[in-house]
Amino acid sequence: MPFADILGQEKASAYLKKLAANQRVPGALLFYGPDGVGKAKAAVAFAQALNCQDPQARQTGEACGVCASCQAIVKGTHPDVTFVDFAYQARLEVKKDFSSKGYEEELEKEIAKQQHINVDTIRDVTAKSQQKAVGGGWKVLIIDQAQTMQAAAANALLKFIEEPPHKTVWILITNKRAAMLRTILSRCQPLSFAPLSQENVKQILLQTGAEVPDADLCARYSGGSVSGALQAAEALELLQSGGFNTPQGPAGVAAGLSRTLVSARQEAQAVLNVLIMALHQAWTAEQDPRRQRALQEALKRFENYKRSIGRNVSPALVLETALMSLDGLNVRIF
Fold first, then answer.
1. pLDDT tens, 77-101?
2. Which domain holds residue 140?
3. Are residues 182 and 225 in the same domain?
4. What is the mean pLDDT of residues 298-304?
5. What is the per-residue pLDDT across 136-192, written as a single tens digit (0 to 9) for each?
6. By C-alpha distance, which of 249, 256, 303, 250 is closest to 276?
7. Given 172, 192, 212, which residue is the final one in a domain?
8. Partners of residue 174 on adjacent β-strands
9. Rounded to 5 degrees, what are φ and ψ at 73?
10. Same domain, 294 and 163
11. Considering the entire predicted model, what is its pTM?
12. From CA 310, how far away is CA 269, in angstroms rounded?
């Protein structure tokens, strides 16, 4: 994957290309920024650039994308590149052989349970970091959602990122830099990933063939992230099918939420995010001081509604109340 394919992150990509071209890489890097802006893609592209078998490509800090090493990294089968995420951790938890009957179903259930990177997973990957590179290139160990590491896991990682073996690099990916241990942060060289422009989000949605009803509309409510655009697509569908801006709308939208609590919370949060962005857009465009104040008060209420969903409160009840509170504001979504 060439760095040019990572839209909207030209500054970060240029820095990584320079590191790869010079082969002078810090022992640990921290990729931080919102979800869905290309951090994981950049980590994979960097791993390819460090291990590409094409000498000409390596001199430019890029990867050819077609050699055996580049292809193996994309497929997740390269022996020297490890990508740790909740799916990786779930595979460690599922004791069945991957070819066994029911493995995929059990794995999917295990992935859904994951909330933290635990110490056993970190011990697994730190053991791999001490093994000699099979291909003679770089060992690259990537930890996604690094802010979810439990304290024991973070402490188990410390000495390994402080003094990694020769030609070994750790890449920690996070959307909440402030939530990570200071001792971890102090050992990593930070690299910021900015929110994407609406045009970048739209372009990525179209290029990847994402199943969204309206790429322009989803990009508008994306919050500068591709994952945000996909969540917005689900929220917009809920609003439309529930009859938003009709007398029955609040109850109809709330009734459309999933029956499982975790999913219902996520869906309700996504709907509130769309509504907050719509309120903010209306507030910035409004000229009447009285309507500006009304919209500003609505924005404050909606932030409280978002906090309520995170507590032990019915997502459907919160969402219905939030939608009812829009009465008289004439907020346009579609």
1. 999 999 999 999 999 998 767 777 8
2. 3-192
3. no
4. 96
5. 899 999 999 999 999 999 999 999 999 899 999 999 999 999 999 999 999 999 999
6. 303
7. 192
8. 32
9. -65, -45
10. no
11. 0.90
12. 9
* Residue 332 falls inside a structural domain: no
How many domains in the chain?
2
Per-residue model confidence as pLDDT tens digits over 187-223: 999 999 999 999 999 999 999 999 998 999 999 999 9
- 331 inside domain: no
Tokens found for residue 139? 């060992």
Tokens 């193996």 locate to 72
Confidence at 325, pLDDT banded by 50, 70, 90? very high
Q: Which tokens in the block code for residue 4?
A: 């040019």
Q: Are residues 80 and 168 in the same domain?
A: yes
What lies within 8 Å, CB to CB, of 236 at 6+ separation is 213, 214, 217, 218, 221, 274, 333, 334
Task: Give domain status of residue 301, yes or no.
Answer: yes
